Amino acid sequence: MMDDDIEQRLRDIQKEYLSFLDDEENQNVYHKKVKLMIDENSQRLLIDINDLRKKNPNRTQELLTNTFEEQFALERALKEYVANIDSTYANKYDEFFVAFEGSFGSRHVTPRTMNSKFLGNLVCLEGIVTKCSLVRPKIVRSVHFCPATKKTIERRYTDMTSISAFPSSSVYPTKDDDGNPLETEYGLSVYKDHQTITIQEMPEKAPAGQLPRFVDIVCDNDLVDCCKPGDRVQVVGSYRCLPAKQGGYTTGNFRTIVIANNISQLSKDATYSVSRDDVFNCRKLSRRKGDIFNLLARSLAPSIHGHTFIKKAILCLLLGGIEKILPNGTRLRGDINLLLIGDPSVAKSQLLRYVLCAAPRAVATTGRGSSGVGLTAAVTTDQETGDRRLEAGAMVLADRGVVCIDEFDKMSDMDRTAIHEVMEQGRVSISKAGIHARLNARCSVLAAANPVYGRYDQYKTPMENIGLQDSLLSRFDLLFVMLDVPDSENDRLISEHVVRIHRYRDPKEQDGEALPMGSGVDILSTRNLEIDENDPSKTRMFEKYEPLLHGPQNNKSEQTLSSQFMRKYIHIAKCVKPVLTEEASNEISEEYSRLRSQEAVESDAARTQPVTVRTLETLIRLSTAHAKARLSKNVEQQDAQAAIELVQFAYFKKVLEKPKRKRQLSDEESGDEQDSQNKPPKRKSKKNDDDPYSFEDGEEEDPDTEEPEVMEVDTNSLPAVAQTSITPDRYKVFK
């Protein structure tokens, strides 16, 4: 009697859902969607829960709170509706599925906010995929043949993860009721794809000092292999609990899972809400007089004094170059890698911390607390099922972002070798335990390390101080040596800057007032920081002048951009795809030739890293990033010159001043010679071209009359010279 009541209630619910699908007032939206589903040979229909809420609010509330029964009735209604449209297609498949999207209100949760009150409800959660099990076939219906009786037995299997039916016995039959053995007909049995993935909460949204929470997601049929470790996804499904067994007995503790019906990819960059005014302000700022690149670099980490070139390099890292995939499949990376090596207390770690806040997607790790598989990917074993799983590392989780590795020198050589492929190819190849996979890890690496002896030894070469292999150093685009050199003037400026920062207090706080407990950092760590930052009405372009933060009154003209506007400007600049011009190409080629020349190698003994073909690609990437900062469509000569300055500062830091003047002088001479060759009427002889005292005004004079004028004696100047060199008596003799 009870089964009849349940069946009758399911039929009533099914009729309501069938009227929702076949709704002429809604312009037959789902009639078109079902036809499209049939054309695509699919079994899953995507339903907007907002449409159902407008049509039947009561049914929507029941669907959110009692998902198991409601989704079962909705899928039965979908199969009936498909049969009315195309009966042949409906008979082809035993089941049809539904997927949901739309607004879920309070049921839009994260792995941390999910609790027991959501059990049995339809939830929508976001996170990052950390583990993926192998796709295994799961039996749905088995067919058995009895040789003794010549009969066929069929049995269906459902468990707690099934939506289409209630759980049934999972005993696999080997004998019939009379004890006769059964043979399984594997060809007639029906299976479905099954996969389990693990979703972890976003690293940037996890509260400080707490481990990230995770939840297991069950994927069946067409939802398997729709994501990989490192992807940021949004999952809609039913939240359920399963009994846990220990020693063969069921305990009072339950483990929870989410049975997914819809999985969609998320992009962290796409969540930035950029208004029309923001784009207009960015374009207006890029056209202002002066160098926009210096303004952006000055706005990076304004609380850190100095390190101008390093801030410019970090800005290039955030903007990046252009990734290219050639027709033959070759990938040219556009990510910029940066290594900071220097003495303690030179703000290396603080620069890394700022990048974590400024980059749209960033993952932080340390050399001592990271292993090779922890940075790339690892193959683990599921304790419950025994299946092999692929677990993503830090670089895979930071795909299309930045990986900040502090204490890079504390890593072992074997662990550093594991990231070679990631830094150049942008992917991780795994061939372990029967798993052959390739994961994307297209990220920029910002690493900080100390020298071999703790402090930089001026009497040793940079290679001896750095202590890293050339194969690893060549993968870093720029390597900066940060020295703590005693300098009275510089030390005074640093001390004044640090003291001003420590004297600063928020204007909302009173002097001497203690921070209230339970507020401050704890509130900021649990709320979404992007809500206020992305509000166009609250985004200002420049920071308000504050003497304790921005220095004395004479530095008031040096404005700095606000952190919110800085993030939006970087987001807009990353979308620009500038093209390399011929002038910039020639400038880059000439600089690369000078770096590779034997004379430069011998004279510049303080070179910090080897000059390889990757250096040429470094110049191209830095030039492209500089053009992005100007929001330019072309990489011009000024962009190439800015990239050359960064490379020269990174390569020749120890003897920067004197060799750089020689290099600039050679550039001017080569430029004058090239200009004279391009102008045949003004061309001079080679002797005059090499003359460092030649002036532009004399270029228009005739070369034929130049030599006699130089050899002609000036009679007016001769007596003046004679008066200073000959005595009066001697002069009378000559006269």
UniProtKB/TrEMBL annotation:
Residues 691-712 have a biased composition (Acidic residues). Residues 716-727 have a biased composition (Polar residues). Its main location: nucleus. One of its GO terms (molecular function) is ATP hydrolysis activity. CDD domains: MCM3. The keyword Chloroplast does not apply. Residues 292-498 form the MCM C-terminal AAA(+) ATPase domain. Gene3D superfamilies: 2.20.28.10, mini-chromosome maintenance (MCM) complex, chain A, domain 1 (3.30.1640.10), Nucleic acid-binding proteins (2.40.50.140), P-loop containing nucleotide triphosphate hydrolases (3.40.50.300). Keywords: ATP-binding, Cell cycle, Chromosome, DNA replication, DNA-binding, Helicase, Hydrolase, Nucleotide-binding, Nucleus. One of its GO terms (biological process) is mitotic DNA replication initiation. It catalyses: ATP + H2O = ADP + phosphate + H(+). Its EC number is 3.6.4.12. Residues 660-735 are annotated as: Disordered. Pfam families: MCM, MCM_lid, MCM_N, MCM_OB. PROSITE patterns: MCM_1, MCM_2. One of its GO terms (cellular component) is MCM complex. Acts as component of the MCM2-7 complex (MCM complex) which is the replicative helicase essential for 'once per cell cycle' DNA replication initiation and elongation in eukaryotic cells. The active ATPase sites in the MCM2-7 ring are formed through the interaction surfaces of two neighboring subunits such that a critical structure of a conserved arginine finger motif is provided in trans relative to the ATP-binding site of the Walker A box of the adjacent subunit. The six ATPase active sites, however, are likely to contribute differentially to the complex helicase activity. Component of the MCM2-7 complex. Belongs to the MCM family. This is DNA replication licensing factor MCM3. The gene is Mcm3.
